[in-house]
Amino acid sequence: MKNLKKKTFFTIFIIISLFAFVFAIFFNIQTYHKEYTGILNNLTRMRNLTIKRPESFNKEMKPINDDELHNRKVMDYEVYTFILNDNNDIVDKISHSDNDISEEIITKAKNIILNNTRSKIKIGCLYLESYAYNFEDNNSLTIINISNTRKMLLTNLLISLLLIVIGELVIYIISKKITEWIAKPVLESFDREKEFVANASHELKTPLAVMMASIDCLDVNKKNEKWLNNLKSEADRMNNLITKLLDLSKTEYLKKENFSKNDISMIIEKRALIFESLAYEKNITIETNITEKIIFSCHKESIDELGSILIDNAISHGEENSKIIINLTNEKNEIKLTIVNKGEAIPSDECEKIFERFYRNDKSHNRKSGRYGLGLAIAKNIVKAHNGIIKAYSKDGYTTFEVRFKKNEH
């Protein structure tokens, strides 16, 4: 359920965030394109006006008095036209706005004339450039001061980024609310399912106990011995299943107020000693590397159950004449438990699935050994209740179950 809520939240968050980013990008692109087009159009208009002029002048000649060019006003930008003679000397200067021609503009014009070829329109990146120009073959140079445009575009970009940051916080809150709304019926259904399993298991426990007691009281003879043994075997299997379901239900409702400080080293060491006889039947040896006196705030019975499940699982799936290694270490910020056995590897795509309820990798083996795919689900519940992490992986013929508990969580 927790993973479902995470996936739902991130899906909603990413979708809404993408819409916000696309809108911000579209707005800035549209603004940029509008300004770029405006600058280009003004440069083109000035070119169309100046193209009527003679192609050359000598140094003594004054340019033709073109009233249309001199009186041409541009409201959106500071536009200046410089008329040149054949020697690239400026012979006329025209301002197409209310601004006077400053020395800075004149210096910029001289630099363009000196360092650039004709028949060239240069606008550049509007976020970086302060001037755009058109240097024509007909001895004219048009310069547009776009510094105000650059400032406006940069301001829009910064405002967009700021709004995105603020928007992400709003989107985060909205995504959480939507996730809770979507997950609520699923969570309620999941809780009802868990409650049903717990109640059904409790209700089945009593009649099953009566059935098993009745079977033991029946007279056994050659005629009914086979059927009674079958009944007893299936009753034992059902009793085992109900017990597991009850254990699963209990671990789903573990509360921190029931936790207390316990020596987890002693708990795991004791579990290893108890399972040595079972391991001996398969010629498996158990080796322990347990750091002494690791104190951990936990639910003692659940940690004991966790150790039993993982060690029993290692023995069940371990090869004969092999070794099981149990490591418990006290690291800087966490307690680490690993149980390693040699045996059939867990496929990489099933390393997470094995912790699901009723999941069985080898169904025939589990059925023969009376397993129902609940042990590792119980182990996962216990670890999650203690804010820990459990995982499994196989490498080089060895399978490792690893559990990590954060010490500072309790």
Would you mind describing this structure in some detail?
The chain is of the alpha+beta class. It folds into two domains: 2-151; 257-409, Heat Shock Protein 90 (2-Layer Sandwich). Helices cover 53% and strands 19% of the residues. It is built from ten helices and twelve strands. It has helices spanning 2-50, 67-71, 103-115, 147-217, 225-251, 264-274, 276-280, 300-317, 363-368, 375-385, and strands at residues 78-84, 90-95, 120-122, 131-136, 140-145, 260-263, 285-290, 295-298, 323-330, 334-342, 388-395, 398-406. It has a five-stranded antiparallel beta sheet with strand order 2-1-5-4-3, sandwiched between helices. A five-stranded mixed beta sheet has the order 7-9-10-12-11. Strands 6-8 form a two-stranded antiparallel sheet. Strand 3 (120-122) and strand 4 form a beta hairpin. Helix 6 packs parallel to helix 8 (300-317). The longest helix is centred in the middle third of the chain and has 71 residues, at 147-217. Mean pLDDT is 80; it is low at 53-65 and 363-369.
Mean pLDDT: 80
Binned strand content: 15-25%
Number of strands: 12
Q: How large is the count of helical segments? A: 10
At CATH level 2, the architecture of the largest domain is 2-Layer Sandwich
Describe the biggest sheet?
A: 5 strands, antiparallel
Q: Fill in the CATH topology of the largest domain.
A: Heat Shock Protein 90
User: What general outline do the C-alpha atoms trace?
Assistant: elongated
What structural class do the secondary elements suggest? alpha+beta
The Cα radius of gyration reads 41 Å
Distance between the termini: 24 Å
